[in-house]
Amino acid sequence: MATELIKNLARHVGGEVTIQGWLYNVRSSGKIRFLIVRDGSGMVQGVMVKQEVGDELFELANTLTQESSLKLTGVVREEPRSIGGFELQVTGLEVVSVAEEYPITHKEHGVDFLAERRHLWIRTPRQNAILRIRSEIEHAFRDFFYQRDFVLADSPIITPAACEGTTTLFELDYHGEKAFLSQSGQLYNEATAAALGRIYCFGPTFRAEKSKTRRHLLEFWMIEAEMAYFDVDDNMKLQEEMVFYVIQRVLERCRQELKTLERDVSKLENIKLPFPRISYTEAVELLKKAGQEFEWGDDFGAPHETIIGSHFDAPVFVHRYPTVIKAFYMKPDPNDPKVVLGADLLAPEGYGEVIGGGQRIDDLALLEKRIDEHQLPREAFEWYLDLRRYGSVPHSGFGLGIERTVAWICGLDHIRETIPFPRMLHKMYP
Ligand code: 4AD
Ligand code: MG
Fold this sequence. Notes:
The chain is of the alpha+beta class. It contains 14 helices and 18 strands. α5 crosses α7 and α5 crosses α14.
């Protein structure tokens, strides 16, 4: 008997197949039992008729509890009213393991209860849809860069220096030497970009965030690209094309999942190129007009980003932030050195910053000065300074947080659902 994934049942209408999965739910009506089975790829209802399968199999089905594992054989038929559009007319059942009483029942549970059982929570249809969309998004990013001749250059996780300030470092003991978990692969990306031209990395990054918000994780995944000879405008153009590409991919391939999540897809369908761009200074004006008390030079908080995002009802680039609030490596605008050639991409619908990026300082003396001003240890950055000593070029790059992007595309309230096992303040079980 051919085993098949539930998502591929359409290929077998009229044929007999075996699916391997877990019992999601069962109900009986006289001499018929309806077994709803999930296998990770989808769900299907098996219709078991006593007369057809015999007493023994019919009684066996009665011993099955929620999440018992099983192999179900049957004839595939189209059934538009049934979950997934197909049904299995059951001919065989093999029980693999009868589950103990399952803690996550079909009634509503509180989020703390579910979070403690994240290893089981991920089996539910909603979490399944989110994790499938995440997977599609990750593939889409890789395809985008592959099509554009970028080289995938992995950056290290254990590093001797801080990239994004010293307040969120996870420190570790590297056999007696002080080391940190990477906050960003950027500095290494600048080296690989000088070696390979256009590169990206994709990996986990770590920030010892002390705040508990709906958009901060302590471990998150970042897509980071770095391009030699790109200026701040080339950088934004690449980013908007990338984000647009990824959204189209999800719209094209994840309709069912978006439906499960009750996502208002028109919000995604209405996204157009190019994305609006405003300077930080213009954004401050906009905030003041919206009645916010905001001083030029302050950093945006989540409410400010929401106001800016709602104003455009589109992803929007905010560029040329004050030099004082941005990282040491950002290149000052030659026309106005109070601001840097950095740009963040803010997502609409209150999702806020999903990308941080910009043009990097390419002048050796200025970079040395900044490292001193930021009181960073010079020795740890000597290799990075070499990139300005040997063939320095204008270059730019960015980092996009995968989880915030998944939250936005899926329309989720909280980042904790965007990754199989979230790491949050005081929460790392399971
Ligand atoms: O703006 P950030 O800090 O930029 C950098 O790390 C640059 N070095 C990237 C680069 O230019 N190569 O972080 C980039 C993105 C943010 O826009 C956000 O989407 C995400 O990473 N991010 C987080 N996501 C979840 N939890 C956190 N604690 C995050 N911190 C940043
Ligand atoms: Mg940022």
